[in-house]
C-alpha cells in the first residue's frame, strides 16, 4: 500500500512546508511594516505578500484533493510530477506577486493549468474505476 502513495505523501509534505514558508513571510512582513494582527491593510508591499499567501492558502485544499485523487485513481508518478510543477508555479506566483501585482499572472495561469490537468486525470481515473469495477469495461 505505501508503494502506491509514497510520492503523493512526499509532495503533500512539500506543499505543507511551502504553505508554512508563505505564512512566515507574512509574519516577517508584518514586523517589517509594523502591521499588527488583525489588520490586513498597509503599504502595497505588505498587501501583496498578504494576498499571495491568502490566495495560495485558498487553492491548497483543491490542490491536495486533486493530487490524491489523480494519484490514487490514475497514476501516482504523473500526479506527483504535476504536484511538483504546481508547487513550483505557486512559489513563482508568491515571489512574483511580492515584487509586483503584474508578476503574478503567468505563474497563476500555469498553476491553474496544472490543476485542470490533475482534475482531468482524476475524472478519467475515477471514471475508469467505476466502469471497470461495476460494468466490466476497461477504458484505459
Automatic annotation (TrEMBL):
Gene Ontology MF term list: glutathione peroxidase activity; glutathione transferase activity; leukotriene-C4 synthase activity
Subcellular location as annotated: Endoplasmic reticulum membrane; Nucleus membrane
Membrane topology recorded in Swiss-Prot or TrEMBL: Multi-pass membrane protein
GO-annotated cellular components: endoplasmic reticulum membrane; nuclear membrane
Main location: endoplasmic reticulum
Family under the similarity heading: Belongs to the MAPEG family.
Protein name: LTC4S synthase
Amino acid at each position: 500500500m505505501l508503494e502506491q502513495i509514497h510520492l503523493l505523501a512526499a509532495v503533500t509534505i512539500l506543499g505543507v512546508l511551502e504553505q508554512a514558508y508563505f505564512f512566515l513571510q507574512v509574519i516577517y512582513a508584518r514586523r517589517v511594516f509594523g502591521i499588527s494582527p488583525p489588520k490586513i491593510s498597509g503599504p502595497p508591499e505588505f498587501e501583496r505578500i498578504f494576498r499571495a499567501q491568502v490566495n495560495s492558502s485558498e487553492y491548497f485544499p483543491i490542490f491536495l484533493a486533486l493530487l490524491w485523487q489523480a494519484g490514487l485513481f490514475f497514476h501516482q508518478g504523473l500526479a506527483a510530477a504535476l504536484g511538483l510543477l504546481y508547487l513550483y508555479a505557486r512559489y513563482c506566483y508568491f515571489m512574483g506577486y511580492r515584487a509586483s501585482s503584474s508578476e503574478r499572472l503567468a505563474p497563476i495561469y500555469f498553476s491553474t493549468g496544472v490543476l485542470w490537468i490533475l482534475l482531468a486525470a482524476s475524472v478519467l481515473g475515477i471514471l475508469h474505476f467505476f466502469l471497470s469495477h461495476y460494468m466490466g469495461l476497461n477504458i484505459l
